[in-house]
Write a structure and sequence with these properties.
single chain, alpha+beta, 4-stranded antiparallel beta sheet, two-stranded antiparallel sheet, 2 helices, 6 strands, 31% helix, flat
Length: 117
């Protein structure tokens, strides 16, 4: 079984969902989480705070620096994610379709084989 990262993307400046729409998204993702758990696909998942809550840590020439804010200045950022375990990409894409219907665009990326030992 391979592991896949399903990342939910948010576009800065896009119209924000209403409170009712957010509650629907939370309920639907909760249902999907339960379905993943029951199917044995769930590994880990969670929502992320906004990029301005990030801290970037760098080590260059033995010196560590830390800076506030996201690593990349962009209008799109990861809002949340799932790590799932599936037989193949087709199964991961089927989960991603359910997730995208619940909360917007989802990128699917397989973990490399070395990280799954």
């Amino acid at each position: 079984m391979k592991q896949y990262l399903l990342s939910v993307h948010f576009v800065e400046g896009a119209p924000a969902p209403s409170d009712e729409e957010m509650q629907t998204m939370f309920a639907e993702t909760g249902r999907i989480n339960d379905e993943m758990l029951a199917a044995g696909a769930w590994v880990f998942g969670g929502g992320l705070l906004s990029p301005d809550s990030a801290t970037v840590v760098r080590v260059e020439n033995g010196a560590t620096t830390m800076s506030d804010g996201p690593f990349a200045e962009t209008k799109e950022h990861i809002a949340g994610f799932w790590v799932i375990r599936c037989e193949d990409l087709d199964h991961a894409l089927a989960w991603a379709e359910k997730c995208a219907a619940a909360c917007g665009p989802v990128e699917v990326r397989p973990f490399d084989d070395l990280s799954q030992a």
